[in-house]
């Protein structure tokens, strides 16, 4: 059984991994995203119509699909983490507003996507990594107009 200090350190490291994924995706750092996964990881985004992928396929998928959006922002909630030695599971809520150009006048609209990430994590020599990541869809709202005041 791990000590309370080890448990806290593991939870912080896992929370950091989850947050780091969001920052790297929103900054279009596709190659760095793959480093957060074990080489044999699976990524299941089928809840939104994407395929089940390997980390390199995820990199390619993100690089091809996300440039269609002017901006994205993955707002990650607090994960619920269950530790079991060198493995763990986590469920993390995510609100993902995505801004798209909606007209020739430069106007923008936003999509609001609500989901949970269900993760299986593994401790590696490089720290905690995603061994499996699955999206669980909650909702999608599209065509919200960007209103500029003043």
Structure, explained:
This protein has a single domain, classed as Roll (Nuclear Transport Factor 2, Chain: A). 22% of the residues are buried. Strands 1, 2, 3, 4, 5, 6, 7 and 8 form an 8-stranded mixed beta sheet that branches. It is of the alpha+beta class and 150 residues long. It is elongated. It has helices spanning 4-26, 30-34, 55-65, and strands at 37-44, 52-53, 71-72, 75-76, 80-84, 87-101, 108-124, 127-145. The protein has 3 helices and 8 strands, in the order ααββαββββββ. Helix content is 26%, strand content 47%.
What is the structure about, briefly put?
The chain contains three helices and eight strands.
- Cα end-to-end separation: 59 Å
Query: Mean pLDDT, rounded to whole units?
Result: 92
CATH topology: Nuclear Transport Factor 2, Chain: A
Low-confidence stretches: none
Order of helices and strands: HHEEHEEEEEE
List the helices and strands and how they pair.
Elements: H1 4-26, H2 30-34, E1 37-44, E2 52-53, H3 55-65, E3 71-72, E4 75-76, E5 80-84, E6 87-101, E7 108-124, E8 127-145
